[in-house]
Amino acid sequence: MRQLALEVPDSRARALRAVVSLLITLGASFLSLLFHVGLLLMGEEGDEALEKITAVVTTVGFLSGYGSRVYFLMWFHRVVRQLQAQGAGIGLTPGGAVWMWLIPFVNFVKPFTLMKDVAEKAGGARFAASLHLGLWWGVQLLFYAADQVKRILVRVVWKEGGAPWDAACVLGIVMALVVVLLTLSYVRVVRELQARMDRRRAALEAGNEPVPEDEAVAA
Predict the structure, then answer these.
(1) Which of 18, 149, 174, 190 could bridge 75 with an S-S bond, Cβ 3.0-4.6 Å?
(2) Cα(77)–Cα(99) distance, rounded to whole angstroms?
(3) How many Cα atoms are found within 13 Å in the side-chain-facing hemisphere of 216?
């Protein structure tokens, strides 16, 4: 099993790409937050140039958010594949685990349970608890809810007359703030979980069987 596990490429490069893309999203969202606050304070007669810059930054954050999602799922796929090869599978194929993030309604619950399973397999129950995955997923659900409210306001409430200036600024502030919190939580989860995967890989390369640290301490 050890040799087969080592034949699976590690997930370090994918983790790095995921974190970099998340940090780009974080930076763009933070700037969007500041610019929307500036626009709100200046009022409807505010700086037209700042309004255009805010729109560009918001668009960059939106696009980088999709990119970071792709890189995150690529990393998650590789992590599940590694655990499976190490005899610590989560009951789904790597591809099946990724699909759980994409299927409507299923993705409200299943990704949380999968991430918890992955964390426990990689580092043990104490490690999984230290990640505060409930808080992480709570922010994710908050993002889903805020995004749905935004869609309703734009497509139904403000469809004909357009969004009132103050309301549009407040909505921009709320969305940017939620994305900032969500992105920070994703960065933390990826970094800490990847560190555990690196330890498991190091154990394999040293000729040992990787076990969660909880089990190692108990032994």
Answers:
(1) 18
(2) 10
(3) 15
